[in-house]
């Protein structure tokens, strides 16, 4: 048996007049028995669309994968031959290959990179559009829509304060268990702050519209991007259930469901962080091949695969105030392909606004060590002691007075003892001021 590598090649098909080419494209693929995938195969054709996107399996040698009558795999079809078949059907297949130098098999106008004179590009003068009056341009059409950003991690409130200050944005911070959520909107690139190893993974959900939403997952291994809507409506051209050879059917299914490389990316994430790869991948697979159905459900399932609490996931999709909305119940896909209902609880929300670096530093000192401690480490002795002192200003003040007395006694000595005493006095005075502010706010 011959072994060869196969990869999915993204191509487009159009008819030239802007009409829907999908039915005829499906007919060509079906007749040649090419296990291709068709984007938005079952959706309505929008008049603004000009072309249909397809995925075509191609070998490393540049041959198109096809199935024989016996449902075995063949590699006899070349890309130029496939383009010619589309041209004969009145369609143009925009797909490049290493065989494009063969002029005898070129399908004609629109298929090759160079024109008849061998020029790769048209003269610059031909590309110049008619002059448009400056007043007729609507500058608002070029404004980028705001991106609703939800960042999940194990970071405390300190991250929210820094993101607000760095980007000049209002940031909401919500916690549930060992996970936190930062919510904000921005129409420009933002600095989401730096996370330590114990605060990772950082999972950022960026929402613009149903088609353009994407995730950025940051671990020690780097940043990985995932688009839950990219393969959502992709459908296989061939009936995979009708393929009589199980091995061939599995290959065709995996080519369409795994061909974008998202499963390999998730496996890389899993080497640095806890994630249910199978559950996360179902949120990225085509719905027609067992993927989670619905854009919101896909995003929820992807987040749940990292072990993020259900109430925190619900808060990310609540475009109003998460503390004021009745977050009843949500459904999340789970590993065993079943579905469960998880109760959602009320969440406390902290809000941060840019106030200037002086105020930000002062507020950070008042918040204390607990705000900067990763949520996964809040049960450690030092963090628990710091949190107890923050919640009990009287006890903290008593300790500060003891430190002040010790500092005064040490400052009466000479040499290093005097220097250490002065440091203790300064620290004790600062702690007393902070205790007074905390007590007043309580």
Show the helix and strand layout.
Elements: E1 6-14, H1 22-32, E2 37-38, E3 52-59, E4 63-67, E5 73-78, H2 79-88, E6 92-94, H3 124-127, E7 147-153, H4 157-167, E8 171-176, E9 179-186, E10 202-207, E11 214-219, E12 222-226, E13 235-236, H5 246-258, H6 262-270, H7 277-282, H8 295-304, H9 310-316, E14 329-333, E15 339-343, E16 349-352, H10 357-367, H11 369-372, H12 381-391, H13 393-411, H14 416-441
Helix pairs in contact: 4-10, 13-14
Give me a quick take on this structure.
The protein is α+β, with helices and mostly antiparallel strands and 442 residues long. The chain has helices at 22-32, 79-88, 124-127, 157-167, 246-258, 262-270, 277-282, 295-304, 310-316, 357-367, 369-372, 381-391, 393-411, 416-441, and strands at 6-14, 37-38, 52-59, 63-67, 73-78, 92-94, 147-153, 171-176, 179-186, 202-207, 214-219, 222-226, 235-236, 329-333, 339-343, 349-352. The chain has 14 helices and 16 strands.
